Amino acid sequence: MPPPPFPPSPKPLGLPSSYLSSSLNHQHNSNRTTRGLSAEDLEGGDVMLRLYESIRSEERRSGREATKTSTRKLINNEKNKNKNKPKQVNHTHNPSKGANPISSFTSSSKNQTSLLTDLKSSNIRLRAQLSSLLNLSALFLKSSDKPLEVVKGDAIAFSSLLDDNVIKLLGPSASNIGGDNNALRGSAGTDLIGGDDNACVSEVINFFKGMGLVFEKEFGERIEECEEEGQKWREQFEKSERERVMLIYDFKKLEEELDQVRNRTNEEILESVYDGKLALVGGEDYAVKDDAALIAMGIQPIPTNALATNVGRTHVHHEMDALRQQKIFLQKEVEEMRAALRRKEAEVNARECDMSNIVDSLEEAQRKLLQSEKDKVVLKRKLILANEEKQKLKKKEYSYEKSGIEAMELGDIAVRKAEDILEKAYKVKVAKRRPLVRAKRLAEESRRGVGELGRHVKLEINRCLHDVCDLVREGLFALGEEVQGAAEMRVKYRLEAQERRKIFNKMLTMQGRMRVMARIRPKQGGELNQCISIAPGGKGDTIMLDLDHNGAHKFRFDKVFSHLPNAHSDTEHGIAEQVLPLALSAMDGYNVCVFAYGQTGSGKTHTMKALTSIICRKLFSSREGFKSKVSVSYTEIYNNEVRDLLRNPKDDHGSRSEWGRGDNNIPSLDVRNNLDGEVEVNSIRVQITCAEEVEDLVRRGTEIRSTFSTDLNKHSSRSHALLTITCEVENEWAGLKYCGKLNLVDLAGSERLSRSNTEGDRLKETQFINTSLAALGNVMSALAKEQAYIPYRDSKLTMLLSDCLSGNSKVLMMTCVKEGAEEASETLCTLQFGARAKRVKLGEAKKNVVGKVGGEEGGEDWGVGGGSREGGGMRSGGRGGGSSNSTRSAIRADKKKKANNPPPPPTVLAATSGKPPSIRGKSKSKEKK
Ligand SMILES: Nc1ncnc2c1ncn2[C@@H]1O[C@H](COP(=O)(O)OP(=O)(O)OP(=O)(O)O)[C@@H](O)[C@H]1O
């Protein structure tokens, strides 16, 4: 950083008092420099001239070498003189001493001419070497141990002195040289200087060196005085670092001035030298003259010390002022710097804010850039898709264009055709306009007529409406009466139906026996040697079997279904019509058992399958209006083992790879009597909601039922199948809950071993079948004979049917026989079995009332007979029983509930009947027995 531009000092610092004095004198006597030189002024120059003349005379006398020697001698002599009389030379001034050298110089024109020539050459040399001389002199002075200020002052003084002496040396010719400077420079070249240059220069140097020594001594005392002053100042100046800088600054200034002097032109140099001489002379005058002389000269004398003191004080004041100004300046600078610093800080903060904003915006921009990159990728994809779409569209467009052109062509054709049509239409229109006008007129007339007609019609309609309203009113009134009558009729009907149902059930109960029907399967193919016939007559339910034409065996059954004359219709619906009233009584809470018995291939399975389907459909359709739950179990008795036909074969631990038939590894179910002596089988029971589900279960169960092909039947059933449908019904009308059970049993066919030709497993199966059927026959015989012991436990079949056969169930046996003489013996056995069964007296059938609707139980017998429940009756008798597990458990639960909660008052119907609610009582039957 460059030093601050200090304000220039009013005076150069560190100058000795001599310089200041001379300077003041120079200022004071500046007017004198412009006028000619006085004799006193040229005293120094006189000395130089004398020296010069001596040198020139010596040169002329003894040549150049001698000149040099003499010059040295002269210089030495002069030195010695100066040593001996320094103050006389420098400090004494006597104007009267000697003549004026300029006047004497001027007087001699010859000498002037030659001198001028010499001066010209010397002048050139001197000027060329002047700056180097000054430098040498400065170096010389600097090499001494004097203080810097003194040296500087001495240097200036010395330079002035040198200048002065040079002027003195050149003085006489200065005015003449004047404007001829250039001319002189041009005319005087190196040739003019010639080989004397070096010698001359060295002489001059020596001369000036000598002069320097002289002046050094001459100014010694003054220098000492000045040193004291300078010492004071230096002490002050040393206190401040700033002052030293100023000194350096001033010194540099001086150096610059010196350089300026060095670079001056001839005229300037001469002028300054001349001025310097005057100043020097003035200073010397001041130094040597007394106050009176100075006053005489018009100069106000100032004592040297006072001057120095005042000047020093003034200088110090100036310095102080300068320092203060500098301080103020610096303070201002500092304030400015601080302000600038604050501005910079604010700027930096602003920049930081800007930077953070820029960083944020940069991040935002980067994020946007990333997003834009992603968007770019997406857009590229879209662009690709769009291009593809565009291609497709172009293709489409092309096709559309094509079709468009075609359409346009077609359109043109159509337009032409349309125009033709329009033209024709116009013609037609024109042609038909007249009739149209006529038609319009007619239409107008007819509209008027229609209006009148409409009014008439409205009036008529209103009239009719009134009549209709009256009629409707009357009709409604009549309808209300009819509705009321219908309600009454309905009540009557229900009462009647109830009564009829009661009578029907009573009739069935009164029959008391097992209902036995027979079905004769027609022979298919082959020659028929008929031995069966149906006895004609009122009842027509007697089968006559003529074995050997010796007289027919007659067997009377409740119904005989056959294609033979005098028999009931053998259609499935014809049979079902007879069976359904009994079967559907399960919905009324009765236990019902329908089973088919007969020889193999006689159509048992065929019949039971049809009956099952019809009964189930009817069962579910007739239970509408009742809250009911229906569940199904399906089991078979194969080789005297009970198996579940509703089980999943996959649950058999892989023992069967398919819905296998007759697999001996199928687990059998336990059949046992509980504590109440009731039969229990742990079979699967499936809740169902429609007849189709039952059919589906039967189909699936039949698939795994044990059936095999025999000589007598291609699909012979090798097991007895028991389908048990349990119905739990809430009869809201009666306010009772019933639980009935319908057992549909398809027995395996009896067969003679001689005819079936079975062996192995089939033989074993046949034996088990025949054994079980024989056990059933024994039970029937025992029941028919009303024996005390009924051998139910002889087989699983009789065990399972014991509830049906021994209790209060309704039982129907379908005896199936085949026509044909070859079947006669088996038919006879079958019919005999049926006849035996028909003699069996069962106990009175009882409803299984398990509770009341809403938790109550009891109620009298009732019957809401649907169409399907009509007809048929069955005599019931014997002891009750045959309820399912769930039925029994439900009854047990009801008993417990009754024990805990006393029964509420009976329902309205029960109350009106006056009978206490009856619950199926096995104990009662047992007691009866
Ligand atoms: N009433 C009938 N009308 C026409 N075909 C019948 C009739 N009854 C049975 N069939 C046919 O006779 C064949 C044997 O009938 P089904 O299998 O029902 O006899 P089954 O008594 O069950 O014999 P098994 O005791 O060996 O099982 C079957 O093909 C069946 O279609």
Automatic annotation (TrEMBL):
Q: Where is this region: Disordered?
A: 1-41, 57-109, 851-929
Q: Which stretches does UniProt call biased (Gly residues)?
A: 861-883
Residue ranges, compositional bias (Polar residues): 25-36
User: Does ATP-binding show up as a keyword for this record?
Assistant: yes
- Amino acid composition bias (Pro residues), ranges on this chain: 1-13
Which residue windows does the record flag with biased composition (Basic and acidic residues)?
57-67
Q: What SUPFAM superfamilies does this protein map onto?
A: P-loop containing nucleoside triphosphate hydrolases
Please provide the record's keywords in A-Z order. ATP-binding, Coiled coil, Microtubule, Motor protein, Nucleotide-binding
Bias (Low complexity) ranges: 14-24
For binding ATP, which residues are annotated in this chain's numbering?
598-605
Q: Which GO terms describe its biological process?
A: microtubule-based movement
Q: What is this protein called?
A: Kinesin-like protein
The scientific name of the source species is Triparma laevis f. longispina
